[in-house]
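User: Here's a chain of 147 residues. Predict its fold as tokens.
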Amino acid sequence: MPDQDILSDAERAALSEAMQAPELPALQALLVDDDRDSLNLLCEILNWHGVACVTEQSAEAALGRLAVDRSIGLLITDLRMHPVNGLELIRRIRESDRVALPIIIMSGDAGVKDAIEAMHLSVVDFLLKPIDSAQLVKLAKKELGLN
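Assistant: Prediction complete.
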């Protein structure tokens, strides 16, 4: 019995299209800091080195963005913010559906207690201000798979 094709050309095209992997958005970093100047500078540095980023000036705004924006693959947050600080932001993320999100903390005045608590919250790294931009870029690219 000869091979017969049971699919029409239109059916074959539809099946081929359905089997294609969906195009996922490129991952980007979310930077959170209540200091607008620091935020803009860090975002410019990351963009210059090929790391896309978006910014928020509060933990609440960051949580709102994370709830709706699935293209965010990394959070970089300041530790000292008001009214909700960086550690509380991380706790809330670890209790959400974004529990596995890689997180980098930045701080200008963190103590050992803060660093230990951050490590218990499974952060990728804890960077002291002034930020070593080369180190930040390297970490961000690694976490976003841009190496």
